[in-house]
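INTERNAL AUDIT FORM
Audit reference: QA-55
Scope: verify that the stored structure record matches its stored sequence.
Auditor: D.O.
Record contents follow.
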Amino acid sequence: MKKSKFSHEFRPIHSPKDGALLSIEAYAGRIHGRKMRRRFKLSVYGDERWVRKAAETWIREVREQQFDNQQTFTDLSPRQRDDVIEAFKLIEPYKLNLFDVVRQYMANVEKYKLAEPWTFRQAANAVLDFKQANKKSAHYLRGLKGYLSTISLALGERICDDIKVEHLEEFLRSMLSF
């Protein structure tokens, strides 16, 4: 039996009509579960020797890129590697791709332009502006402004994210003790 001149990295593709070699399919292994393969046509490269050289070059480049990616991962700090692994564990049940999740998150950051956190006073002013833009009555706006001004005296310069229920309860207790 004649030994094939193609290894497991290469597979010849022959014409079904006359059996002539049409191309070589190169296989560079799997990266992230995806088969890395590519066809190199004889009609593009001229002869079998050049097709094989192009395929070998491609396989070498893919494997070097894979090695570079692995090196990049090992160059991360232990904390960063742990974060990456934890991120993969979090998205695994949903069959999501980590890159797609990050890309979607970044698109939302750009879309919603996440800004610096607001102080309570800034949030109160934004509420008043919103209500005024929605044509609320002057009586309603006056009352709301009074309530928000009073509470702003106590919480005005605090960041909204830092305000807890206890702070609001403390404010209400202080108001009832007058």
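Auditor finding: record pair retrieved intact. Residues 48-75 form the longest helix (28 residues).
Action required: none
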